Amino acid sequence: MLTAGSEINRYLEASQMNFEEDKTRRREELIMTYAPLVKFVAERLAIRMPSHISKDDLTSAGIIGLFDAIDNYDSNRGIKFETYAFYRIKGAILDEMRRLDWIPRSVRREIQEIEAAITSVRVKLGRDPEDHEIALELGVSLESYFKMIDKAKGINLLSLDESVTGSSVTTVNKIKSKTPSPLDELNKNEVKRVIADAMSKLSEKEQLVVSLYYFDELTLKEIARVMGLTESRISQIHSKAIITLRVKLKSYYGC
To answer: Which end of the chain has the smaller Cβ count within 10 Å, N or C?
Structure first.
């Protein structure tokens, strides 16, 4: 049985030998084979995007990422093609979303205001604030605060899709070898430790939502069924948890 890596290598050999007909046929076969992976990644990311973002736009960007993965895969690096393609597809979609700047400035400003309020109340109380305490610090009603949280849907946690320290090197670019440098391992372990510590200080509901979403890969709708809450409420809990984690990470890294 042929592996994905061997099929990719045959395609690349055809490319290098300029067998145009064979190259085109193999490329089309690979695209058809891994199109479901593009759909999977696009649908997962679509959950985090505002409603006005088209899933078709995400899929189109993901296909570009798949093209890139097919043309640049090197089995000698010791990485499975599926893993390499997943990160290329995800990276292409995120790059396109950043290019479109899909989070309005007004929403970014509100997110920063919420982060500042959380930080301020934490200093005053010596603990993580409750929702009503954050709303009071912001000078808005609890209902208005939840509307602000709703609009923050799709915000990324620092270090999940980009470097905590502001480096332009993304997770995709780091996938080069099965033998990372000691410095890479140290940085990765440090980030894991900081995130784990920050997560341990979230509320039980927030920890459960983050765990089910990122580790068990359930959708917000599935999490809502598990926890007996509405999907809208789960979305609010998720957004609040991510904003809280961002505050903690920014504090740790001095951002």
So the answer is: N
105-253: CATH, from 3.40.50.300, 1.10.10.10, 3.40.50.10610, 3.40.630.30: 1.10.10.10
CB 58 within 8 A of CB 46: yes
Report the C-alpha gap between 47 and 140 in whole angstroms: 27
165 secondary structure, DSSP code = T
Q: Which amino acid is at 103?
A: I
Query: If we measure between CA atoms, which residue out of 59, 64, 56, 57 comes closest to residue 41?
Result: 59
Domains in the chain: boundaries: 4-100, 105-253
- How far apart CA 218 and CA 177 sit, in angstroms, is 30
Nearest to 206 by CA among 165, 158, 243, 156: 243
Of the options 1.10.1740.10, 2.70.70.10, 2.40.30.200, 3.30.420.10, the CATH number for the domain spanning 4-100: 1.10.1740.10
Q: What is the tally of helices (H) and strands (E) in the chain?
A: 12, 0
For the record, the structure tokens of 119 come out as 């930080």
pLDDT tens-place values along the chain, 255 residues long: 445 555 555 555 544 444 345 556 677 788 888 889 998 888 877 766 666 667 788 888 899 899 888 888 887 888 888 888 898 998 888 887 776 656 677 888 888 899 999 999 999 999 889 999 999 999 999 999 998 988 877 666 543 344 333 333 343 344 444 445 555 555 566 766 777 888 888 889 999 998 888 777 788 888 999 999 998 899 889 889 888 888 887 776 555
